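Worked Example 4.2. Consider the chain below.
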Amino acid sequence: MTRRVVITGAGVVSSIGSGREAFWDALAAGTSGAREIELEQLGLVTVCAAPADEGALELVGPREARRMDRSARLAVVAAAGALADAGGVLGDPLRIGAVIANVHGGTETMHAAAVGMWSGGVDRVSPFTVPLGLTNAPVAAVMRVNGLRGPSSTVATACAAGTDAIGLAAMLIRAGRADVMLAGGAEAPISPLVVAAYRRMRALASAARPPAEMSRPFDRARDGFVIAEGAGVVVLEERDRALARGARILCELVGYGSSSDAGHITDPDETGEGAARAVRVALAEAGVEGSEIGHVNAHATSTPSGDIAEARAIVAAGLSGAAVSATKSLHGHTLGAAGGIEAIAAMLPLVRGVIPATANLDDPEPDPPLDHVRETRHADVELAVSNSFGFGGHNAAIVLRRA
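Applying the procedure from the previous section yields the following structure tokens:
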């Protein structure tokens, strides 16, 4: 018999709210986290930044916090929130693990090392640069802080990584390798080099509008994404175990799919077929048809090519009757953390019956037509899909069922 996987806790650190309830409140209210900050050599840049004091110092103490890059601190705080939300989930540490996505590694750490080396020589490079700067630093910190000894892994499939992390963690539970997994993503990419690189490739939104209006998923005036930082972690648990301990189940993870475009290094398959394959695989694992999906949490970063490709994928996968919303219009694009944060966003309609709106969608792309949610909507949603797509042609999708 296939082991069923449920979500019993969720933790978020984001520009619009930290903690599951605060995050959901902000989504329902249409709160934007975009603001201008000044970055070295770049001047004013619009970002969606998480709180400067993310809470790690109070959680783990100054010594441990100093041994973490900001991306790891975000992951540890989100994981702590998820565990607290799940209530009493911990047990045999050998049966509990984590898969935490991260793409850019420890940008805070690497920036400090580069500045130190070019200004003062090799001796100014911290010996902690490598362990704090690796992409596995967030998951290593989560495992270390919580004393977990089960499976642990990092996924780095660009902006599909957070959803892939959740899918991999669910597979480990279904295979009997673990009973509980922390899964999601953490990213802290707001550093001069990373922002400059995205700017040079013309992936970022222009500054022609106020910060809160710059992220415009599916809008014909969109011209790029607003870069963001944050972390989103869920507690995945084998269903019988969760029921035995009397856990509150938020929803069930019933399907996961992934695929590759095997095409351009950054641009998606313009037909949307590659992304649609990932969605179809997730639907097949869930044993449902596309017509049964009530809500799609779109990846929709607000880039010209990405959004139209996803719209075509949604139609090609049979989801054209579902309500579609894109929450990056509020909390920005958190890159490797996007799938974790947005899995939690996709749970909002299942738990509260509220579908968040896509902000700044003034002039939707007319073809293909979708049921865009332009104002917060109350609806009875049984099944939801959350999409994530990344540079290199990585596609991932999960299907969530109401508890």
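The CA atoms of residues 115 and 121 lie 9 Å apart. The chain has a mean pLDDT of 96. Compare this with Example 4.1 before moving on.
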